[in-house]
Structure to design on (192 residues):
């Protein structure tokens, strides 16, 4: 192989590797956009978080109330990947109805990790626990969320889109209003 052929082969290999490097993030973006645009929306109630857990980065620490499956018939090992089937209660809030080793044939589910079994509850690790916000409103949003659960009538809901086992957070509402809007209103009131 002469010098020109080697250069041509190197260029072809470089182009193939470059395309492969670009294909991975493009596929991840495409998959996320597909979940957001075509996924089914589920509303998960959020529980009060530990007020001493510091705000880390530019996201809010979120804990879903129902991060377990009741009366699970199967046994799993801690850390084992499993599939949590999603159902809705009478008020329209999401909960996990069962755990399986395989994706179900029908219905929505999320790929999760089994944590441990506690009496009749099988606890799971959800693929979402952070809600990212604009860095300008992040400190105020964290304070607002930390003090939000003083009234039992208050309802904090995490909006999650689900498709083919993939779950993406699409919003966080406080009493039906997006947290970004609540924070902006509060900041506007405080600046007057």
């Amino acid at each position: 192989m002469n010098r020109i052929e080697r250069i041509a082969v190197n260029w072809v290999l470089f182009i193939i590797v470059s395309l492969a490097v670009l294909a991975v993030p493009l596929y991840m973006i495409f998959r996320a956009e597909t979940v957001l645009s075509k996924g089914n929306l589920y509303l998960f109630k959020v529980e009060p978080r530990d007020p001493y857990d510091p705000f880390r980065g530019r996201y809010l620490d979120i804990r879903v109330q129902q991060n377990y499956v009741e009366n699970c018939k199967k046994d799993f090992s801690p850390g084992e990947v499993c599939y949590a089937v999603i159902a809705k209660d009478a008020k329209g809030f999401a909960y996990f109805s069962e755990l399986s080793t395989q994706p179900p044939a029908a219905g929505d589910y999320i790929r999760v990790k089994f944590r441990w079994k506690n009496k009749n509850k099988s606890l799971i690790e959800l693929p979402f626990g952070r809600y990212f916000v604009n860095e300008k409103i992040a400190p105020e949003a964290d304070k607002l969320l930390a003090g939000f659960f003083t009234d039992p009538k208050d309802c904090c809901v995490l909006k999650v889109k689900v498709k083919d086992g993939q779950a993406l957070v699409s919003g966080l509402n406080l009493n039906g209003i997006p947290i970004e809007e609540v924070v902006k209103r509060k900041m506007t009131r405080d600046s007057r």
About this structure: Residues 40-64+128-192 form one domain. The helical segments are 3-38, 138-146, 179-191. The chain is about 30% helix and 35% strand.
